[in-house]
Design goal:
GO terms for molecular function: DNA binding; DNA-binding transcription factor activity. The protein is elongated, with a radius of gyration of 22 Å. Helix 1 packs across helix 3, helix 5 packs antiparallel against helix 9 and helix 9 runs antiparallel to helix 10. Strands 5-4-3-8-7-6 form a six-stranded antiparallel β-sheet, with helices on both faces. By secondary structure, it is α+β, with helices and mostly antiparallel strands. Strand 6 and strand 7 form a beta hairpin.
Length: about 280
Amino acid sequence: MARRSSLPTPPAKVKAPAAANTLAILQLLTSSDIPMSAARIIQETGLPRSTVYHLLRVMEDAGFVVHVAEECAYGLGRAAYEMATSYSRQQPLVRVGVRTAQQLARAVRGSAHISRLSGSEVIYLLEERAPGAVRLLTDAGVRLDCVRTASGRAMVAYAEESYVRAAVGVHGVGGREFADLLRELKAVRERGWAEEKELVSPGQESIAAPIFDHLGRATAALAVTFGCGTLGEEERTRVGEDVRQRALWLGERVYGAGRAARAGSSGRADSAGQKRRP
């Protein structure tokens, strides 16, 4: 159930009531997992019936809303989806990270990615492939279980244990398996980067490092994926450290992370569940 407190300022308090009303409807539809009836929209927004129907028709014509006749309800349309996709392409982290991802992909003759956490999943924001590299599942917009990926583990390693339990519980990880995961996450903090082998793509392995924001939180991750056995142990370690350093640089460049990011990175010996101070 959407809350009115989360809606834009009521029309009476703004200079563009039509725009505010339109945004109120779009924000309400965005907060719902299922299409909503016009009656529900009227109730939640508190807007006049005639206004709601008029704006729904305008938004439907523009592609921002789709009318599901079978359910007598309205949901977000293709234009709204394209806007969200454009945001994922245009946001600063992606724009700043493109060149870094390209360089890493060429260095390992594979792919490089930037992603962020979304609940118990990782959502990929960017993928760059070296010439001739294998096409993977991890294209922009793809979502995967966070504990299944190196990127997800790189971020989750710096989260509180309560979050880790909630996130992995969705995917049925418990008991001894969960204890093993906690030990692995501790190793990630000590080393500064995470890894996975053939958990996402057969014949491929990945290395990922967290990107810290200005509060020292691991809000995103930078990763590389390459063919299993193509890098020796010494070279893998060098690539892991390179990814870690580049991830720290991205955090400083995009979020102004600076000291807070380095503090989050250097707090590697802490156990999951302990908060780190910038």
